[in-house]
Amino acid sequence: MNRFTFAFAAGSLLLCGSQIFLNLGLHPEHQAPLPLLGQGILGLVLGTALVVSGLLGLVEGYQKAAARVRQLLQGRQLDPESSARTLGELQDQQRSFWKSYRKSTLGLLLFLIGLLGLGAALHRADFLLYLAALGFGIGALGLVSLGLVVQGTRALRRHWQVAEQTALAIQEQPLAPPPAPVKALPKWVVYSKEERLRHFRRHSTLSTPP
Known about the structure:
Elements lengths: L1 H24 L8 H42 L4 H42 L5 H45 L21 H15 L3
Helix pairs in contact: 1-2, 1-3, 1-4, 2-3, 2-4, 3-4
């Protein structure tokens, strides 16, 4: 869990830093050389890979823990009311998990798209004005985005931990008794017309007195 959280955090920082660098380096009055711009683009690519890897790891880990809870509910001796309550809590937790997932991605996208739009809108403005607007945008968008990302990531980790703790608690319960064996029903034998006729003749011969 920690490595996926670290990958998401590191990727987010790399993405935001690369976007800020590109915003500064693409202004016509202080345009950065192509090698530096290439490094900024590379930072965007690597940051995106880290963010996707971290989010996918958190999702996969939670899904495995939730699937284990469902599997254990079928093999442990729990009363129907407790089992239904656990399944209901798991469904509510899944909805909250995906809500937190959207919150994390929304916070990151808000910062990146906001800076991109700000840079495009003030691309031809004076460089000092551009720096002032960019600094204000980084501060305002950064606070909002950081709050969304931190809240969402904490919630993702918490849901994963709760699912694992639930699985461990169910695992400590006794195993459910094996189902009672089902008695096999008698098989009806279907005879052909010739077999019925031969069966009738044999019984007729045996029943005829000498």
